[in-house]
Amino acid sequence: MRHIAFVVQDPKKMADFYTSRFGMELFHTDPDGSHFVTDGYVNLALIQQRLDGDVPAGFNHFGFHVESVEPYLDTLQPRPALRGGDRPFAEYRAIDPEGNWFDLSAHGFLPPGVA
């Protein structure tokens, strides 16, 4: 597991908390204000809550960094879905038997160009 995401009301305040208290490093900010911090191993996504959205604040999803996504595509039910749009992170979204979202990524959870 390399990625955990929370929907938050104030991503900057949350990022400041994790960087100042736990030494995490801010490595990306989305245009919508979402902030992404890392300790060098685990990436923490602090997703901006949208007032017009239907996603509540709190835990949202977690992610696995895998060598290849292909072996999981036919073994997980329902089949993982390709994440569309301009997402620079995980390639696929899936759900566990209890309905918890998780991501699968072969390229990892840092934006392209960030080591």
TrEMBL record:
It comes from the Bacteria. Residues 1-115 form the VOC domain. CDD domains: VOC (cd06587). Gene3D superfamilies: 2,3-Dihydroxybiphenyl 1,2-Dioxygenase, domain 1. SUPFAM superfamilies: Glyoxalase/Bleomycin resistance protein/Dihydroxybiphenyl dioxygenase (SSF54593). InterPro entries: Glyas_Bleomycin-R_OHBP_Dase (IPR029068), Glyas_Fos-R_dOase_dom (IPR004360), VOC_core (IPR037523). Signal peptide: none annotated. This is VOC domain-containing protein.
